[in-house]
Design brief:
The protein is α+β, with helices and mostly antiparallel strands. The protein is built from 18 helices and 13 strands. The strands form 4 sheets. A 5-stranded mixed sheet has the order 2-3-9-6-4. Strands 1-8-7 form a 3-stranded mixed sheet, with no helix packed on it. Strands 5-13-10 form a 3-stranded antiparallel sheet. It binds protoporphyrin IX containing FE (HEM).
Length: 400
């Protein structure tokens, strides 16, 4: 069998820059049909479900998250020296932290927060109900996950606004403008760091039933998480669990706006919520893809990827792979026995908050279906520019 160097392959080009959503979906499908691999502005794109699962499970492909500062021209600053979060850890270090943390992210732990999630979404709806219309991203999606993360961590209500601001500032890391945003990110990160450190000390003195207390108590074979690790984890939860949930909820509602027949089906039977969430995440996942870097030369399917090669795993392409889903371009909330969607990733970095995110989305959608059965678009949905990261509607005018 001949082995080819990746750079010698004649591959389709996947570059979504400047394309609208339909054009991007069409380009993705075309690339996927032509080859399992594509060229992208970032490196190579992996385009098919089975290959994406394989690449994400290949432990020699490492998370490329720690390369962001370097890629955006702020190498050599304290940004680059930040301690790794679970998202960018690899090998034994990742295994150790994940083992200690995973038992705190069970379905039961997510289910405990469901009544609270219902209260949060109901409060947001109450505040705007009489208006009959709103901009759904700013009014509902943006505020929704913050109190839930705060409740999860055990931060008091009075501090929610500060969390919201820290989240907004820290998310600038994905804005492709790191050189300019760097001071705000650093400031927010330092404040969050100090805040969580104090919270950890507090919980060490007086444990409660929140996540932080559970993580402080977590122990495996005599091993425990240090204060530094707890602070990093809280920050990772805020980073990984906020904007994702916001964009995913907005994408769900935008999708229902474009498919009123499916919304009517859901309103008639809210017990479909788990399937609704999985089908909307398949059809329009908030995380379009994730990037890996080859930690050494890696051979896969008779192709050699040299050390340092960047691989963009297109979760969006996996989710519409015709070899895996029948009629992948159809949005169907009654779809049965479909393969698991890839919007939570795969392999060692599979989303730690998947149960929590599913619960948040299900609770929000059920309350929406009950309170606003006539929910409909009230204008054009504006989508964020397609970067390779977290994506969804920028503006979503709705009425009820
Ligand atoms: C709809 C909402 C969400 C989506 C679409 C999502 C998606 C993802 C994806 C695709 C990954 C894997 C990234 C990679 O492989 O590079 C991931 C990892 C992660 N997610 Fe989520 N996520 C969501 C919500 C949450 C929530 C609510 C939390 C927790 C509070 C969370 C915490 C994490 C953490 C800690 C990781 C890293 C796990 C590891 O590296 O071992 N996520 N998420």
């Amino acid at each position: 069998m001949t082995v080819t160097a990746a750079y010698e392959l004649d591959l389709p080009m996947y570059d979504p820059t400047g394309l609208d959503r339909d054009q991007r979906v069409a380009l993705l499908a075309d690339c996927q049909r032509r080859h399992w691999l594509a060229r992208t502005p970032l490196g190579f794109g992996v385009m098919r479900y089975a290959d994406i699962v394989a690449i994400l499970r290949e432990r020699r492909f490492h998370s490329a998250l720690s390369l962001i500062p370097q890629m955006q021209g702020v190498a050599g600053t304290s940004m680059e020296e930040r301690r790794p979060s679970i998202l960018s850890m690899e090998g034994d270090e990742h295994t150790r932290v994940r083992r200690l943390v995973a038992p705190a992210f069970t379905p039961a732990a997510a289910n405990r927060l469901r009544p609270y999630m219902g209260e949060v979404i109901a409060e947001l709806i109450d505040a705007i109900d009489a208006r009959g219309e709103c901009e759904f991203v700013a009014d509902v999606c943006d505020p929704y996950p913050i109190p839930i993360i705060c409740e999860l961590l055990g931060a008091p209500r009075a501090d929610w606004q500060r969390f919201s601001q820290w989240a907004t500032d820290i998310f600038r890391i994905f804005n492709q403008n790191l050189a300019e945003d760097f001071p705000a990110i650093e400031r927010a990160s330092a404040e969050l760091d100090e805040y969580v450190r104090a919270l950890v000390e507090d919980r060490r003195r007086a444990p409660s039933d929140d996540l932080l207390s559970v993580l402080i108590a977590a122990e495996e074979a005599g091993d425990r998480l240090s204060t530094d690790e707890l602070v990093r984890l809280a920050e990772a939860g805020l980073m990984a669990g906020t904007d994702t949930t916001r964009n995913q909820l907005a994408s769900c509602v935008a999708l229902f706006g474009a498919h009123p027949d499916q919304w009517a089906k859901f309103v008639a039977d809210p017990s479909l919520a788990p399937r609704v969430v999985d089908e909307t995440m398949r059809f329009l996942g908030a995380v379009q893809g994730t990037v890996r870097v080859a930690s050494e030369a890696i051979e896969y399917r008779d192709v050699v990827f040299p050390q340092g090669t960047l691989m963009f795993a297109s979760l969006a392409a996996a989710n519409r792979d015709p070899d895996v889903y029948s009629e992948p371009m159809q949005f169907d909330i009654t779809r049965e026995s479909a393969a698991p969607h890839m919007s939570f990733g795969s392999g060692i970095h599979y989303c730690l908050g998947a149960h929590l995110a599913r619960a948040e989305l299900q609770e929000a959608l059920v309350v929406l279906a009950q309170r606003w059965p006539n929910l409909a678009l009230a204008g054009t949905v504006e989508w964020k520019p397609d970067t390779f990261g977290i994506w969804g509607p920028a503006r979503l005018p709705v009425q009820w």
